[in-house]
Amino acid sequence: MTHQVPALTTSQKKELQETALRIVTPGKGILAADESVGSMGKRLNQIGVENTEENRRQFRQVLFRADDRINSCIGGVIFFHETLYQQADDGTSFVKMIKDKNIAVGIKVDKGVVPLAGTNGESTTQGLDGLLERCAQYKKDGANFAKWRCVFKIGDTTPSTLSIQENANVLARYSSICQQHGIVPIVEPEILPDGDHDLRRCQYVTEKVLAALYKAMSDHHVYLEGTLLKPNMVTPGHSCSTKYSAEEVAMATVTALRRTVPPAVSGVTFLSGGQSEEEASVHLNAINNCPLVKPWALTFSYGRALQASALKTWRGHKENENVATEQFIKRAEVNSLACQGKYTGGGYSESDQIYVANHAY
Amino acid sequence: MPHSFPFLSTEQKKELSDIAQKIVAPGKGILAADESTGSVAKRFQSINTENTEENRRLYRQLLFTADSVEPCIGGVIFFHETLYQKTDDGQLFPELIKDRGMVVGIKVDKGVVPLAGTNGETTTQGLDGLYERCAQYKKDGADFAKWRCVLKITDTTPSELAIKENANVLARYASICQMHGIVPIVEPEILPDGDHDLKRTQYVTEKVLAAVYKALSDHHVYLEGTLLKPNMVTAGHSCPQKFSNQEIAMATVTALRRTVPPAVPGITFLSGGQSEEEATINLNAMNQCPLHRPWAITFSYGRALQASALKAWGGKPENGKACQDEFIKRALNNSKACQGKYVSTGEKGAAGGESLFVANHSY
User: Fold this and answer.
1) Among all residues of A, which ones are annotated catalytic?
2) A211 vs B217: CB contact, 8 Å cut-off?
3) Distance in Å from the first CA to the final CA of chain A
4) Which of A289, A319, A349, B257 is found 20 to 30 A from B153 (Cα to Cα)?
5) In this predicted complex, what is the ipTM?
6) Does B201 contact chain A (CB < 8 Å)?
7) How many Å is the Cα radius of gyration of chain A?
8) CA–CA gap between residue B291 and residue A19 (Å, rounded)
9) What is the rounded CA–CA span in Å between residue A40 and residue B181?
């Protein structure tokens, strides 16, 4: 404990930190296009499109062919393994298309959730086996950041101490391994919005989860400046009867982060969870307008909240490609404004201006 | 773990947060005047003054009645005895301090005790009856408290036990204080004794602080109503390598950025064995460090505010003004330093560090 055995050289650290900072450059966030085959199946199903490799390639193409307008909005794209090796119609690799726009390429590296025996339906995430070698390969294939998702749920007895400790530990192990190969780990401890708990409860649980996470990161000697955090926003449960304003969500979220996330972390890239495109943008905007001191970038890493309209417009038809891509560009531009606190559009709850300055739960 | 059982009301939290912010308001820091009777004995011995209760009262009176220090001093830490002493005109010291717009603090720990089975490591005692003592101290005028834990760097220390145990006792103390509207200053001092280099101190400081903040989270401590009193990250006293003030500042701020959540309103450094000038210059360098610092970075100095004043006094009443002048001088210097505005008058050891600046240096 008292002697340092440096895990990284100074130049390795420099590379990691620069990559992280580039992804969260002011005005930029992440396009999470890493839906697994199963998840893509659900999306394509909703628009009546068959879940084939070709269709998945076609849809990612809709997103990746966006013109230079997204260069100032998107700092990174998270890929699923299959997509990392696919090409556009003209044969250009997706990786090259993204890199040519000066956007960082990321890769989802976890292998999904598995149950934690003896708990009330809780899980951990697998994927550590051979991760060191996989990271080396991904780095060669163009990735310089990665993503790993853990899941928590709020219930009467959850999240349990075991779940918090185990997931924090596995996230720290994953981070440590990634950094050995110059890959910036995005750490995602998602607390699901399922349930009827209120905002305060979500805030409390988020604080406990994040505190455990950063202790584990310290224990595993992870270089924080070369990491990003992808947390849930602090919101009430889906079936909570109380409604909260965007400012309340923002205040609760920023307060939780201020109590747990060391300033050395280069950026916080929120997941959108079940939020609609507009909700996710309005919340992100409110977060960036929160008057508390926020020493990290606060931006987006959105999947559905960037793609929903594009998907619905595309419906699997090649002739809809242009219009569908426009929908994506629009959301990218809106979120680019939101992550700078400059988004003025949006008709989400203008009536509940229940702003509570310095509110501390 | 998944349910919150709030024990502080919104008003209680606001009170704690307001007190903490008041102490570390821009330009302000803390006068640590909480030397125990035994510690005062050592100070007085160096100026050939008898360690009597009256002499201790006279000396503290000089500090507490010094002019023009209000913009520099946000809080004063008292030793128990001093909290009940009075000025020559019969005013209780805490009242005097409060009247002058400064916050009154009280040292509440009861000293270090050995941790069996370790290589000379310690924990700190004082939790027994602390709840009741805090209630009384609050009535008697105290709005913040201080508790010091000690860790040391050697080949085998600090051990995991020392880190965990001290982090835990600091969190218990903090939790108890907050129940009575008292802001806990958490002091996990890593001693500068040894020949270890800057990197080693930084590494140990990061581990210790990570454990402290995990413990504070586990004990449900309200961070916005606390302050941190850490050591600066410096090389050991007998380290052959010398480091510039900028390197010390960079190492210190880096360690803090990796461990101290932004919710903590202020970091009030201890001066350890540093000279008055060194402590001021290092504080200044930290406030000029280009890395983003979301907390106030200021001082909680004992010797580094009092050394010259003590010497000027020499135990003689006719030296009262000279003593106060020295103290005021140091208070003003540190007030500038905690805003990054201190310009050294070229005292020995201060110059020559600027050229070794390493931008964005990360150990």
Assistant:
1) 188, 230
2) yes
3) 35
4) B257
5) 0.88
6) no
7) 19
8) 18
9) 53
